[in-house]
Every structure is written in structure tokens, then in C-alpha cells.
Amino acid sequence: MRYEIRIDGHLSDTLAEAFPELEHVVMSGQTVLFGSVVDEAQLFDLLARCQSLGLHVVEMRRMPDD
């Protein structure tokens, strides 16, 4: 499964390192984290990391598999 998580604002390189399994790109005032997620447990872990770092998740969506 591939997911995209949109975060409000620009993630610093240090914060982006908290998500080594995902790639990221900054666009339109948001940081987009994206990549493969193996199961729901990993997805919930990613969201928990966002919350623990005080990041505001604007949107999360499943992307079509390649």
C-alpha cells in the first residue's frame, strides 16, 4: 500500500529524518510525506510520530499502487 500524508508547513531536515521510510517534498506551504506502508500498524505508527512531534496532519490518503 502506498500512502501520502500532508503536513502543514515545511518540515526541517531534522524532522524529516523522523520518517526514514518515507520520501518527502515541500509544495504549496505543506510537506508531503509519501511511500509504501506495509500494514495498518505501520500507518498508525506514522500518525503517532506526527502527533508526538506536534505536526498538523492536513490530509492522509491511500495512493494507487504502481
Describe the structure.
- Helices cover 26% and strands 39% of the residues.
- The chain has 66 residues and is α+β, with helices and mostly antiparallel strands.
- The chain has a four-stranded antiparallel sheet with strand order 2-3-1-4, covered by helices on one side.
- It has helices at residues 13-16, 40-52; strands at 2-8, 23-27, 30-36, 57-63.
- The model has no long low-confidence stretch (mean pLDDT 95).
- It is built from two helices and four strands; from the N terminus they run βαββαβ.
| Approximate strand percentage | 35-45%
Query: What's the total helix number?
Result: 2
Given as residue ranges, the uncertain stretches (5+ residues, pLDDT < 50) are none
Mean pLDDT: 95
How many strand segments? Answer: 4
Strands ordered across the widest β-sheet: 2-3-1-4
For the largest beta-sheet, the strand count, sense and barrel status come to: 4 strands, antiparallel
- The radius of gyration over CA amounts to 11 Å
How far is the N terminus from the C terminus?
A: 9 Å
Derived from helix and strand composition plus strand pairing, the structural class reads alpha+beta
